[in-house]
Amino acid sequence: MSAEEPTGAMVEGEDTSLLIVDDDKPFLTRLARAMETRGFAVETAESVEEAVAKARARPPAYAVVDMRLGDGNGLDVVAAIREKRDDSRTIILTGYGNIATAVTAVKLGAVDYLSKPADADDVFAALTRTSGERAAPPENPMSADRVRWEHIQRVYEMCDRNVSETARRLNMHRRTLQRILAKRAPR
């Protein structure tokens, strides 16, 4: 991650509070340092519990939240932030990107969804993008395996993450589905 040197862009505005939530300590430290050099007042959290407590005490103007944390789901943090401050610009950052969770994150109030590895420039651009701006389209289309994986994830989310119900709807054995869900997304 080329997070150390900013590209010259700085955050503007009165409230530059930023909450970064990730359980990967080295990544969290690098991203926090990079965002501080870009003008943010950074606070960090390594768990859902810690992040929700910080969000309720001092709701941030900006937030970067990892989807999968050791003690739960980052979407709970997004919901807690939105509960206290509906103008907060929150993005989800994850190594397990899929369409279903991206849609859920946006419905809960996230403004963007980035897949890891994302560098500080990507995070900064997502946080500061105006509502009229659009992100550049991806250079490589999804593979057939990725499309299948995305469909499974979408049904899984529709079933409120119930493996048995998802397997029934997909006409798939439950153990097979569990193995698929435990793996990383195909490229």
TrEMBL record:
Domain of life, source organism: Bacteria
InterPro entries referenced in this protein's UniProt entry, alphabetically: ActR_PrrA_rreg (IPR047772), Bact_response_regulator (IPR050595), CheY-like_superfamily (IPR011006), Sig_transdc_resp-reg_receiver (IPR001789)
Modified residues (4-aspartylphosphate): D66
Key word Phosphoprotein present: yes
Domain Response regulatory, chain residue ranges per copy: 17-131
Swiss-Prot/TrEMBL keywords: DNA-binding, Phosphoprotein, Transcription, Transcription regulation, Two-component regulatory system
UniProt feature coiled coil, ranges: none
NCBIfam families with a match to the protein in the record: ActR_PrrA_rreg
Protein name: ActR/PrrA/RegA family redox response regulator transcription factor
Originating organism: Mesorhizobium album
